[in-house]
Amino acid sequence: MDTLSEIDTHPNPSFSVPPTPPNTMETTPSPQSLPIIDISPFLDPSSPPSTCQQTAIATNRACIDYGFFYLTGHGIPISKLDQVISLARQFFALPVAEKNKIKRHDAGGPEGGDGARGYQAMGENITLGRRDVQEAVDLYREWDHSEKGVAAGGEGTYKTLQGPNLWPEQPEELKEVYLDYIDQLMKVGEAIVRAMGVALNLGKPVEGADKNTEDEEVFVRNTNKSFWVMRMIGYPKLETPLVEGGDVTEFSCGEHTDYGCVTLLLADPTPGALQVLLKTGKWLNADPIPGAFVVNIGEMIERWTNGLWKSTRHRVIHRGDGYRVSVPFFYEPNFKALVKPLRKCVERTGGEMVHEGNTYGDHLLGKVFNNFYSEVID
Ligand SMILES: O=C(O)CCC(=O)C(=O)O
Ligand SMILES: [Fe+2]
Protein backbone atom coordinates (compact mmCIF):
# COMPACT_ATOMS: atom_id res chain seq x y z
CA MET A 1 0.00 0.00 0.00
CA ASP A 2 1.41 3.37 -0.95
CA THR A 3 -0.57 6.48 -0.19
CA LEU A 4 1.78 8.91 -1.90
CA SER A 5 -0.44 9.31 -4.94
CA GLU A 6 -3.33 10.40 -2.73
CA ILE A 7 -1.35 13.19 -1.10
CA ASP A 8 0.50 14.52 -4.11
CA THR A 9 -2.14 17.15 -4.59
CA HIS A 10 -1.62 18.62 -1.12
CA PRO A 11 -0.81 22.33 -1.13
CA ASN A 12 2.70 23.51 -0.32
CA PRO A 13 3.72 23.27 3.32
CA SER A 14 2.76 26.08 5.53
CA PHE A 15 5.53 27.17 7.85
CA SER A 16 3.29 27.85 10.79
CA VAL A 17 3.04 25.41 13.68
CA PRO A 18 -0.32 23.61 13.64
CA PRO A 19 -2.54 24.59 16.52
CA THR A 20 -2.34 22.13 19.36
CA PRO A 21 -5.70 20.42 19.54
CA PRO A 22 -7.30 19.85 22.90
CA ASN A 23 -6.31 16.63 24.61
CA THR A 24 -9.36 14.73 23.49
CA MET A 25 -9.51 11.22 22.09
CA GLU A 26 -10.68 12.48 18.71
CA THR A 27 -8.60 10.72 16.04
CA THR A 28 -8.91 10.79 12.30
CA PRO A 29 -11.01 7.95 10.87
CA SER A 30 -9.27 5.12 9.01
CA PRO A 31 -8.33 4.38 6.25
CA GLN A 32 -5.90 7.29 6.08
CA SER A 33 -2.42 5.98 6.69
CA LEU A 34 1.16 7.19 6.69
CA PRO A 35 3.15 6.84 3.44
CA ILE A 36 5.48 3.88 2.94
CA ILE A 37 9.10 4.38 1.89
CA ASP A 38 11.23 1.54 0.52
CA ILE A 39 14.81 2.39 1.54
CA SER A 40 16.47 -0.58 -0.21
CA PRO A 41 17.95 1.47 -3.11
CA PHE A 42 20.02 3.45 -0.59
CA LEU A 43 21.33 0.26 1.06
CA ASP A 44 22.50 -1.32 -2.18
CA PRO A 45 25.38 0.54 -3.85
CA SER A 46 24.56 -1.12 -7.18
CA SER A 47 21.05 0.43 -7.35
CA PRO A 48 20.43 2.53 -10.45
CA PRO A 49 20.18 6.27 -9.76
CA SER A 50 16.56 6.28 -10.96
CA THR A 51 15.40 4.01 -8.12
CA CYS A 52 17.29 6.14 -5.58
CA GLN A 53 15.61 9.18 -7.07
CA GLN A 54 12.16 7.62 -6.62
CA THR A 55 12.87 6.91 -2.96
CA ALA A 56 14.22 10.44 -2.51
CA ILE A 57 11.11 12.03 -4.05
CA ALA A 58 8.82 9.90 -1.86
CA THR A 59 10.91 10.81 1.20
CA ASN A 60 10.64 14.53 0.47
CA ARG A 61 6.85 14.28 0.08
CA ALA A 62 6.46 12.23 3.29
CA CYS A 63 8.65 14.62 5.29
CA ILE A 64 6.76 17.66 4.06
CA ASP A 65 3.28 16.21 4.47
CA TYR A 66 3.67 14.11 7.62
CA GLY A 67 7.16 14.12 9.14
CA PHE A 68 6.39 10.39 9.61
CA PHE A 69 6.46 7.33 7.37
CA TYR A 70 6.64 3.55 7.41
CA LEU A 71 10.02 2.20 6.34
CA THR A 72 10.38 -1.05 4.40
CA GLY A 73 13.30 -2.62 2.50
CA HIS A 74 15.67 -2.15 5.48
CA GLY A 75 16.92 -5.75 5.35
CA ILE A 76 16.57 -6.59 9.08
CA PRO A 77 14.72 -9.91 9.31
CA ILE A 78 11.36 -10.03 11.09
CA SER A 79 12.72 -12.83 13.32
CA LYS A 80 15.32 -10.36 14.65
CA LEU A 81 12.69 -7.65 15.24
CA ASP A 82 10.50 -10.14 17.12
CA GLN A 83 13.46 -11.19 19.25
CA VAL A 84 14.23 -7.56 20.19
CA ILE A 85 10.64 -6.99 21.35
CA SER A 86 10.48 -10.32 23.13
CA LEU A 87 13.71 -9.66 25.09
CA ALA A 88 12.45 -6.23 26.18
CA ARG A 89 9.17 -7.82 27.30
CA GLN A 90 11.07 -10.45 29.30
CA PHE A 91 13.09 -7.72 31.01
CA PHE A 92 10.01 -5.75 32.06
CA ALA A 93 8.41 -8.94 33.44
CA LEU A 94 11.28 -9.34 35.96
CA PRO A 95 10.87 -8.44 39.65
CA VAL A 96 11.43 -4.74 40.43
CA ALA A 97 14.55 -5.57 42.47
CA GLU A 98 16.14 -7.18 39.40
CA LYS A 99 15.24 -4.21 37.18
CA ASN A 100 16.56 -1.78 39.78
CA LYS A 101 20.01 -3.38 39.54
CA ILE A 102 20.48 -1.11 36.51
CA LYS A 103 18.58 1.88 37.89
CA ARG A 104 19.31 5.30 36.41
CA HIS A 105 20.92 7.57 39.01
CA ASP A 106 21.59 11.29 38.92
CA ALA A 107 24.92 12.34 37.49
CA GLY A 108 27.81 13.01 39.86
CA GLY A 109 26.33 10.98 42.73
CA PRO A 110 27.98 8.20 44.74
CA GLU A 111 25.85 5.53 43.00
CA GLY A 112 27.87 6.09 39.81
CA GLY A 113 24.94 7.28 37.68
CA ASP A 114 25.28 9.60 34.72
CA GLY A 115 21.75 11.02 34.86
CA ALA A 116 20.65 9.34 31.64
CA ARG A 117 21.59 5.68 31.20
CA GLY A 118 19.69 2.91 32.95
CA TYR A 119 16.26 1.78 34.12
CA GLN A 120 13.54 4.26 34.95
CA ALA A 121 10.68 2.93 37.01
CA MET A 122 7.04 3.66 36.28
CA GLY A 123 6.32 7.41 36.36
CA GLU A 124 9.95 8.57 36.39
CA ASN A 125 9.83 9.93 32.85
CA ILE A 126 8.18 13.34 32.66
CA THR A 127 6.65 14.98 29.57
CA LEU A 128 5.09 18.45 29.74
CA GLY A 129 5.17 18.30 33.52
CA ARG A 130 3.17 15.04 33.65
CA ARG A 131 4.40 11.62 34.68
CA ASP A 132 4.25 9.21 31.73
CA VAL A 133 2.69 5.84 32.55
CA GLN A 134 5.64 3.78 31.37
CA GLU A 135 8.88 2.19 32.51
CA ALA A 136 11.98 2.25 30.34
CA VAL A 137 15.66 1.50 29.88
CA ASP A 138 17.87 4.00 28.06
CA LEU A 139 21.08 3.02 26.31
CA TYR A 140 23.32 5.49 24.47
CA ARG A 141 26.43 5.32 22.37
CA GLU A 142 29.30 4.81 24.81
CA TRP A 143 31.12 8.03 25.68
CA ASP A 144 34.07 7.33 23.42
CA HIS A 145 34.60 10.48 21.46
CA SER A 146 36.46 12.79 23.80
CA GLU A 147 38.04 13.07 27.21
CA LYS A 148 35.80 12.33 30.15
CA GLY A 149 35.54 15.11 32.67
CA VAL A 150 35.93 14.31 36.38
CA ALA A 151 32.56 14.72 38.09
CA ALA A 152 32.32 16.69 41.31
CA GLY A 153 31.93 13.50 43.39
CA GLY A 154 35.44 12.34 42.41
CA GLU A 155 36.61 8.89 41.28
CA GLY A 156 33.74 6.54 40.24
CA THR A 157 31.28 9.35 39.64
CA TYR A 158 30.19 10.55 36.22
CA LYS A 159 29.18 13.73 34.49
CA THR A 160 25.88 13.71 32.60
CA LEU A 161 25.90 11.07 29.81
CA GLN A 162 29.54 10.10 30.44
CA GLY A 163 28.97 6.85 32.36
CA PRO A 164 28.95 3.35 30.84
CA ASN A 165 25.75 1.76 29.59
CA LEU A 166 23.88 -0.23 32.20
CA TRP A 167 22.94 -3.45 30.42
CA PRO A 168 20.31 -5.77 31.90
CA GLU A 169 21.85 -8.95 33.34
CA GLN A 170 18.60 -10.77 32.51
CA PRO A 171 17.66 -11.99 29.92
CA GLU A 172 21.24 -13.07 29.41
CA GLU A 173 21.32 -12.81 25.64
CA LEU A 174 19.82 -9.30 25.53
CA LYS A 175 23.09 -7.40 25.32
CA GLU A 176 24.55 -9.45 22.48
CA VAL A 177 21.32 -9.37 20.45
CA TYR A 178 20.88 -5.63 20.98
CA LEU A 179 24.49 -4.75 20.07
CA ASP A 180 24.10 -6.64 16.82
CA TYR A 181 20.72 -4.98 16.20
CA ILE A 182 22.24 -1.52 16.81
CA ASP A 183 24.97 -2.27 14.21
CA GLN A 184 22.24 -3.08 11.71
CA LEU A 185 20.23 0.02 12.63
CA MET A 186 23.24 2.29 12.16
CA LYS A 187 23.41 1.21 8.51
CA VAL A 188 19.69 1.82 8.05
CA GLY A 189 19.95 5.21 9.75
CA GLU A 190 22.80 6.18 7.45
CA ALA A 191 20.76 5.12 4.41
CA ILE A 192 17.81 7.26 5.56
CA VAL A 193 19.88 10.42 6.03
CA ARG A 194 21.63 9.77 2.70
CA ALA A 195 18.20 9.63 1.06
CA MET A 196 17.24 12.82 2.88
CA GLY A 197 20.25 14.70 1.52
CA VAL A 198 19.27 13.67 -2.02
CA ALA A 199 15.61 14.43 -1.31
CA LEU A 200 16.54 17.99 -0.38
CA ASN A 201 18.45 18.41 -3.62
CA LEU A 202 21.57 19.67 -1.83
CA GLY A 203 23.91 18.86 -4.72
CA LYS A 204 26.44 16.09 -5.48
CA PRO A 205 29.18 15.40 -2.93
CA VAL A 206 31.96 17.95 -3.12
CA GLU A 207 35.58 16.78 -3.31
CA GLY A 208 37.52 17.42 -0.10
CA ALA A 209 34.27 18.14 1.74
CA ASP A 210 34.34 18.51 5.52
CA LYS A 211 31.61 18.48 8.17
CA ASN A 212 30.52 22.00 7.28
CA THR A 213 30.13 21.35 3.54
CA GLU A 214 26.46 21.61 2.67
CA ASP A 215 26.15 19.02 -0.11
CA GLU A 216 23.82 15.97 -0.20
CA GLU A 217 26.11 14.06 2.21
CA VAL A 218 26.01 16.69 4.93
CA PHE A 219 23.79 14.53 7.17
CA VAL A 220 25.88 11.40 6.52
CA ARG A 221 29.08 13.17 7.59
CA ASN A 222 27.46 14.67 10.68
CA THR A 223 26.01 11.34 11.86
CA ASN A 224 29.02 9.10 11.12
CA LYS A 225 29.60 8.77 14.90
CA SER A 226 25.92 9.05 15.72
CA PHE A 227 25.31 9.64 19.42
CA TRP A 228 22.43 7.17 19.17
CA VAL A 229 19.89 6.33 21.85
CA MET A 230 18.09 3.03 22.23
CA ARG A 231 15.07 2.99 24.48
CA MET A 232 13.17 -0.07 25.63
CA ILE A 233 9.72 1.02 26.84
CA GLY A 234 7.05 -0.91 28.72
CA TYR A 235 3.52 0.45 28.87
CA PRO A 236 0.85 -0.98 31.16
CA LYS A 237 -2.69 -0.35 30.01
CA LEU A 238 -4.03 3.03 31.23
CA GLU A 239 -6.67 2.41 33.86
CA THR A 240 -8.32 5.79 34.56
CA PRO A 241 -11.92 5.82 33.36
CA LEU A 242 -12.53 7.82 30.18
CA VAL A 243 -15.18 10.49 30.34
CA GLU A 244 -17.18 10.72 27.10
CA GLY A 245 -15.97 13.79 25.18
CA GLY A 246 -13.72 14.72 28.08
CA ASP A 247 -10.05 15.61 28.16
CA VAL A 248 -7.35 12.98 28.18
CA THR A 249 -5.55 13.41 31.47
CA GLU A 250 -3.32 10.37 31.56
CA PHE A 251 -0.72 9.51 28.94
CA SER A 252 1.50 6.52 28.27
CA CYS A 253 3.83 9.05 26.65
CA GLY A 254 2.83 12.70 26.55
CA GLU A 255 2.71 14.78 23.38
CA HIS A 256 6.21 15.65 22.15
CA THR A 257 8.55 15.94 19.20
CA ASP A 258 11.69 13.81 19.08
CA TYR A 259 14.77 15.88 19.66
CA GLY A 260 17.31 14.37 17.31
CA CYS A 261 17.64 13.30 13.72
CA VAL A 262 15.55 10.25 12.75
CA THR A 263 13.68 7.81 14.97
CA LEU A 264 13.19 4.18 13.93
CA LEU A 265 10.36 2.85 16.03
CA LEU A 266 9.83 -0.86 16.53
CA ALA A 267 6.68 -1.71 18.48
CA ASP A 268 4.70 -4.82 19.32
CA PRO A 269 1.44 -5.28 17.31
CA THR A 270 -0.82 -3.41 19.79
CA PRO A 271 -3.07 -1.10 17.74
CA GLY A 272 -4.37 2.36 18.62
CA ALA A 273 -1.50 3.39 20.91
CA LEU A 274 0.84 5.68 18.94
CA GLN A 275 -0.88 8.79 17.59
CA VAL A 276 0.56 11.33 15.17
CA LEU A 277 -0.67 14.93 14.90
CA LEU A 278 -1.68 15.73 11.33
CA LYS A 279 -1.55 19.20 9.77
CA THR A 280 -5.33 19.22 9.95
CA GLY A 281 -5.06 19.17 13.75
CA LYS A 282 -6.46 15.61 13.96
CA TRP A 283 -4.66 12.65 15.49
CA LEU A 284 -3.83 9.67 13.28
CA ASN A 285 -3.21 6.20 14.72
CA ALA A 286 0.16 4.98 13.45
CA ASP A 287 -0.46 1.28 13.96
CA PRO A 288 2.43 -1.10 13.36
CA ILE A 289 2.86 -2.85 10.00
CA PRO A 290 4.67 -6.18 10.47
CA GLY A 291 8.33 -5.91 9.44
CA ALA A 292 8.22 -2.12 8.91
CA PHE A 293 9.58 0.63 11.13
CA VAL A 294 7.64 3.78 11.90
CA VAL A 295 10.15 6.53 11.14
CA ASN A 296 9.88 10.18 12.10
CA ILE A 297 12.13 13.18 11.87
CA GLY A 298 13.42 14.97 14.92
CA GLU A 299 14.15 18.57 15.85
CA MET A 300 17.69 18.49 14.41
CA ILE A 301 16.38 17.73 10.92
CA GLU A 302 13.74 20.41 11.33
CA ARG A 303 16.48 22.87 12.21
CA TRP A 304 18.87 21.76 9.43
CA THR A 305 16.03 22.18 6.90
CA ASN A 306 15.02 25.51 8.44
CA GLY A 307 11.51 24.18 9.06
CA LEU A 308 10.97 22.92 5.51
CA TRP A 309 10.51 19.51 7.15
CA LYS A 310 8.82 19.62 10.53
CA SER A 311 9.39 17.38 13.51
CA THR A 312 5.83 16.16 14.02
CA ARG A 313 4.18 15.95 17.42
CA HIS A 314 3.09 12.51 18.60
CA ARG A 315 1.95 10.75 21.77
CA VAL A 316 1.08 7.31 23.13
CA ILE A 317 -2.25 6.46 24.74
CA HIS A 318 -2.39 2.74 25.43
CA ARG A 319 -5.87 1.61 26.39
CA GLY A 320 -5.76 -1.61 24.39
CA ASP A 321 -5.14 -5.14 25.59
CA GLY A 322 -2.07 -6.30 27.39
CA TYR A 323 1.25 -4.77 28.26
CA ARG A 324 2.64 -2.84 25.27
CA VAL A 325 6.36 -2.89 24.44
CA SER A 326 8.19 -0.61 22.04
CA VAL A 327 11.88 -0.16 21.26
CA PRO A 328 12.59 3.13 19.49
CA PHE A 329 16.11 3.72 18.14
CA PHE A 330 17.12 7.34 17.77
CA TYR A 331 19.71 7.80 15.03
CA GLU A 332 21.19 11.13 16.09
CA PRO A 333 23.85 13.57 14.96
CA ASN A 334 27.40 13.24 16.30
CA PHE A 335 27.68 14.71 19.79
CA LYS A 336 29.87 17.50 18.47
CA ALA A 337 27.96 18.11 15.21
CA LEU A 338 27.11 21.76 14.74
CA VAL A 339 23.46 21.82 13.69
CA LYS A 340 22.40 25.02 12.00
CA PRO A 341 20.03 25.76 9.10
CA LEU A 342 21.45 24.83 5.68
CA ARG A 343 21.82 27.85 3.39
CA LYS A 344 19.77 26.27 0.56
CA CYS A 345 16.93 25.50 2.95
CA VAL A 346 17.02 29.01 4.37
CA GLU A 347 16.69 30.42 0.84
CA ARG A 348 13.75 28.13 0.11
CA THR A 349 11.91 29.12 3.27
CA GLY A 350 11.97 32.88 2.97
CA GLY A 351 15.54 33.75 3.95
CA GLU A 352 15.22 33.87 7.72
CA MET A 353 17.05 31.35 9.92
CA VAL A 354 14.85 29.61 12.50
CA HIS A 355 17.85 29.03 14.79
CA GLU A 356 21.40 30.30 14.97
CA GLY A 357 22.72 26.78 15.56
CA ASN A 358 24.45 24.89 18.36
CA THR A 359 25.94 21.45 18.82
CA TYR A 360 23.74 18.40 19.09
CA GLY A 361 25.44 17.62 22.42
CA ASP A 362 24.31 20.90 23.94
CA HIS A 363 20.79 20.36 22.63
CA LEU A 364 20.72 16.84 24.09
CA LEU A 365 22.02 17.89 27.50
CA GLY A 366 19.17 20.41 27.73
CA LYS A 367 16.66 17.62 26.98
CA VAL A 368 18.12 15.21 29.53
CA PHE A 369 17.78 17.87 32.23
CA ASN A 370 14.20 18.53 31.15
CA ASN A 371 13.19 14.86 31.27
CA PHE A 372 14.54 13.92 34.63
CA TYR A 373 15.16 17.04 36.61
CA SER A 374 11.98 18.99 35.91
CA GLU A 375 9.06 19.72 38.18
CA VAL A 376 5.88 17.67 38.03
CA ILE A 377 2.60 19.57 37.88
CA ASP A 378 0.32 17.78 40.36
O1 LIG B 1 6.21 3.89 22.04
C1 LIG B 1 5.94 4.55 21.05
O2 LIG B 1 5.14 4.16 20.19
C2 LIG B 1 6.58 5.91 20.80
C3 LIG B 1 7.52 6.37 21.86
C4 LIG B 1 8.07 7.73 21.56
O3 LIG B 1 7.48 8.51 20.87
C5 LIG B 1 9.38 8.12 22.10
O4 LIG B 1 9.93 7.39 22.95
O5 LIG B 1 9.90 9.18 21.68
FE1 LIG C 1 8.77 10.13 20.27
TrEMBL record:
The highest taxon in the source lineage is Eukaryota
**Keyword set includes Metal-binding:** yes
The yes or no answer to whether the keyword Glycosyltransferase is present is: no
An individual GO BP term: small molecule biosynthetic process
What residue intervals traverse the membrane?
Answer: none
Q: Where is the Fe2OG dioxygenase domain?
A: 226-333
User: What are the start and end residues of every segment in region (Disordered)?
Assistant: 1-32
User: Which keywords does this chain's UniProt record carry?
Assistant: Iron, Metal-binding, Oxidoreductase
Q: Name one GO molecular function term.
A: metal ion binding
Q: Which PROSITE patterns match?
A: FE2OG_OXY
Q: Which family does it belong to?
A: Belongs to the iron/ascorbate-dependent oxidoreductase family.
Instruction: List the PANTHER family.
Output: FI07970P-RELATED, OXIDOREDUCTASE, 2OG-FE II OXYGENASE FAMILY PROTEIN
Name listed for the protein in its UniProt record: Clavaminate synthase-like protein
